[in-house]
What does this fold into?
Amino acid sequence: MAEKKAWSGRFKESNDPVFERMNRSLDFDINLYKEDIALNKAYSAQLNKLGVISDEELIQIHNGLDEIRNEIEQQGLSLFDASTEDIHMGVEARLASKIGDAAKRIHTGKSRNDQVATDVRLYLQRQVGEIIGLIKGLMTQLLRLANEHNKAVMPGFTHLRQAQPVMFAHYMMSFFFPLSRDVERLQDALKRISIMPLGSAALAGSAMALDREFLRDKLGFAAVSDNSMDGVLSRDFAAEFLADIAILGVTLSRMSEDFILYSSEAYKFFDLSDKVTTGSSIMPNKKNPDSLELTRGKSGRFIGNLMTLLTVLKSQPSTYNKDMQEDKEPLFDTVRNIKDVLEVDTILLETMTINEDKMRNAIDSLSFATELADYLAGQGLPFREAHGVVGRIVRDCVDNNTKLTDLHSAELSQYHQLFAEIPDDWGSIERFLAKRNLPGGTGPDSVACQLKKAEKILKK
Ligand code: ARG
It folds into this structure.
């Protein structure tokens, strides 16, 4: 016979053990223990103000809850009986076993429905803060690399084919700015996460004359929920968080894909450190970029967790349904994995080597073809015609295996007389970059502006 449940008064029989196992969320919602204890402390202080709990009992409750927090930190799940349903029941039962009757009053006027919604919001509020800190750590490394290699150049690609050269710092910043938008998205999501449902009780609002402002202040929420039904049923804040992390995961996956290529034998632009690479069980030569591959792979789970939660939510009738218990594993999974990814990627950036020579030497002379077309257009030839002229030059270079940038006015003039005055350094990288100092361009002045702006963003 299973242990008596807090709700067993109405029941003649105990649960079937298989159902009991299915119904139990403690194995994962133990992740909410800090929040559940904080909530119980604030709520019991409120009950004390309302005269439900005496001053003496309040001290017992607070001391008991502190002890339970330590016990959970030391013993984890083993602290609880196998039949304990969830963290809320577990904490309450443990408190009762320590201090007796006073513990039995702490659920007056609250429900697990508003309790769990409040715990999850508190949890996410804390985690989002930590995740933002980790993203900023990664951004700091991107900015450091950009600053340390602020003269380096590299091929830029479209369709994974060489397009035009770019500054390495410009490339680093092309990941910095999307990450700064990820931070903004999470900061914005915090506005909707930091809303306290406590006081909503089961669905209709607590019968106790709770001072919700007092509770909000104690728990550190920005606002209280406006409607008790919405308070217990809403998980859009959690879906928004999962969406934000899915988007972040996609940015990091893209970056990983690049870095896997650029650190491969074919490119050798970067070398990855031993700290974040692995060997092969058979091939002694191998040094595999598993950290980057896992970052790329885990983006799938972030998208999947978002899909899981949205699917769980989409057909639920108002208000609380046990389906809602399925919100937690995707959330915890996303939180744990995105933190790992961000920490590992930060170490990867901290320890990787940039091979400036390899990057510069890899720039294909054909990637200066647009310079020639622009030159003709500058001399008055319509661009579409200029494009055609230069296309023929490129074709001949490919056929004759000559370098485009080795051609000067004498050779070029055979294709068009407007090339007569073209300066000899028309195809130099410095000239290419200097022409691209408009805001957002890859010119050195523009990139310097980007680095300054990035510095400011990080200080915010
Ligand atoms: N473990 C539950 C959950 O995660 C707690 C709320 C249970 N509420 C209820 N009415 N049975 O959602």
About this structure: Residues 112-361 form a domain with the Fumarase C; Chain A, domain 2 fold (CATH 1.20.200.10). The chain has three domains: 16-105, 112-361, 365-459. The longest helix spans residues 112-148.
